[in-house]
Design goal:
about 190 residues; NADH Oxidase; 6 helices; binds flavin mononucleotide
Length: about 190
């Protein structure tokens, strides 16, 4: 597949088929990720590939956070169970971390490199007939979620990436034409 087709066809995939992503497929995606541009070649990325039990534990941490906003105890428990089960059922889930750095410039460069790695992975997934969904949020700092993903103290979670075979590919979301946000200088 030409890279321009992978770029045009990529979508955030919210529904996956039941097919599991194989270890070989995930290794191939992670190899693509590590080819991202990386100033100073710091290898800032840390990839945590969560199996079903780890996914359920991560989902429970997220479900607990959502349940706190629900007054009815039964409905809160249903929320916990549902979110944990939804995560267990994912075809695969990746927690992408980066090594923290006290130097603000290096930290920003490393964050950018990790995001470029995620983009590489997302485009490589399209070329392999797979889809991705990037997720972020305050849960990334939750100790229970971090523990579920095996994230070390010196790591910051940058994003969660669900990966799988799309059950449904949404229509493209409208973007402004680049010309709207482009200035050409002499
Ligand atoms: C840094 C980042 C964080 C995102 N976080 C979430 C998220 O927490 N939940 C979610 O449903 N989608 C999340 N998305 C996906 C975007 O909502 C999605 O890319 C956007 O709606 C455009 O749709 P498309 O990816 O199909 O083109 C995130 C995307 C990026 C790049």
């Amino acid at each position: 597949m030409h890279v321009s087709d992978a770029i045009s066809n990529r979508r955030s995939i919210k529904r996956f088929t039941g097919r599991q992503v194989t270890r070989e497929e995930m290794e191939s995606l992670l190899s693509a990720a590590t080819l991202a541009p990386n100033h100073r070649l710091t290898n800032p990325w840390r990839f945590h590939v969560l199996g079903p039990e780890a996914r359920a534990a991560y989902g429970l941490a997220l479900g607990n956070r959502k349940a706190k906003k629900i007054e009815d105890p039964e409905a809160a428990q249903t929320m916990r169970d549902n979110v944990a089960n939804e995560h267990r059922a994912l075809p695969s889930m990746l927690v992408v971390g980066m090594v923290k750095n006290e130097n603000a410039e290096i930290s920003e460069e490393d964050y950018a490199a990790v995001m470029m790695a995620i983009q590489n992975l997302s485009l490589a997934a399209v070329a392999m007939g797979l889809g991705t969904h990037i997720k972020t949020g305050a849960v990334m700092e939750d100790p229970a979620a971090r523990a579920a993903a095996g994230v070390q103290d010196d790591e910051r979670i940058v994003a969660i990436v669900n990966v799988g075979e799309p059950a449904e590919v949404p229509a493209a979301k409208k973007r402004d034409d680049a010309s709207v946000h482009t200035t050409w200088l002499p």
